[in-house]
Write a structure and sequence with these properties.
By secondary structure, the protein is an alpha/beta fold. The chain has two domains: 58 residues; 213 residues, Rossmann fold (3-Layer(aba) Sandwich), CATH 3.40.50.10880. Helix 1 packs antiparallel against helix 2 and helix 4 runs antiparallel to helix 5. The chain is globular and about 55 Å long. The relative contact order is 0.14. The mean pLDDT is 93.
Length: 291
């Protein structure tokens, strides 16, 4: 997804919030803003929002000396999600369609996003998403691909959301007996999941394997990922990609990619064809020549 003009204020806020999370002084906050404005002034607007956010977050890290200001938030949100795990597991167990319920619960977990908000009503979001119609509904293609897939990659988004991902992977294992490899970032960026966060959510006990992208960017910017991961991505029969940043970076990555998220801003909503808060299960398109 390209960067729209309405993305610019949010990108500035991302840098400022990261600086404040790192206890930046007022002078440091001003430095972050000045340098971020320089990035926005000079950057190619054809870049995706996560590519620009990465540059701004690196500025905040360099100014404050803190490359992981969300570490405590990540741990706390995972603990909160784990508290709900038995209740969500019970919902799936008694559901008429366990897989659809697990997909919806996974999408509900996408509310955990410190780039969008500081507080989340996790259980309220689960109830809302379970009752809501899909705003974008590519379930038929998802089911067809899942039926045929022998090798599934599951691209994580945020810590805490990892627990919701675990429930979907467990359901795929139980209903289809399919191996699922879980993919996390190679370094901290915002509250995106790293190996520590995946292990805290017990993904190491559920997924066939946990691998890294070779990158510490939001989303999955394939050009910044390791060669080993790009080859693994190419080999996969199906890719389940969670969250807004993965939508922004992979929405033209091909028909084997399925994007699970909530529309948390009107810009993405317009691009995806969903209202703010809309429940999205979208099959990625093929990149157009010259795109």
């Amino acid at each position: 997804m390209k960067t729209f003009l309405d993305c610019y204020p949010c990108l500035l806020k991302v840098g400022l919030t990261a600086g404040r999370k790192a206890s930046a002084s007022e002078a440091q906050q001003i430095a972050i803003m000045h340098q971020s404005l320089e990035v926005l002034h000079s950057i190619d607007p054809a870049l995706t929002p996560p590519e620009i956010a990465y540059l701004i977050l690196k500025i905040a890290a360099e100014v404050t000396g803190d490359g992981d200001p969300y570490r405590e938030d990540k741990h706390r949100s995972t603990e909160q999600a784990l508290d709900l795990y038995p209740h969500m597991q019970a919902l799936i167990a008694k559901a008429e369609d366990p897989l659809d319920t697990a997909i919806r619960i996974s999408i509900a977990g996408n509310i955990i996003d410190f780039a969008a908000a500081d507080d989340f009503d996790l259980w309220g979001t689960v109830e809302r998403v379970l009752a809501a119609p899909y705003a974008v509904d590519d379930r038929p293609a998802f089911m067809e691909t899942l039926d045929q897939a022998k090798d599934i990659l599951y691209l994580a988004d945020n810590a805490g959301e990892t627990v919701f991902d675990r429930l979907l992977i467990e359901t795929i294992n139980a209903e289809y007996g399919k191996p699922v490899t879980y993919v996390i970032k190679s370094g901290p960026i915002l509250n995106d999941a790293t190996l520590e966060d995946a292990v805290q959510a017990d993904l190491d006990k559920i997924a066939t394997a946990i691998i890294e992208t070779g990158s510490d960017t939001q989303g999955t910017i394939l050009s910044r990922c390791s060669k080993a991961f790009r080859e693994r991505f190419d080999r996969a029969d199906m890719v389940i990609a969670k969250g807004q940043a993965n939508y922004e970076t992979l929405n033209e990555a091909g028909s084997k990619v399925f994007l699970l998220l909530q529309a948390k801003c009107p810009v993405l909503g317009r691009d995806a064809g969903a209202p703010v808060g809309g429940v999205i299960l979208s099959q990625a398109s093929e990149r157009q020549p010259g795109g």
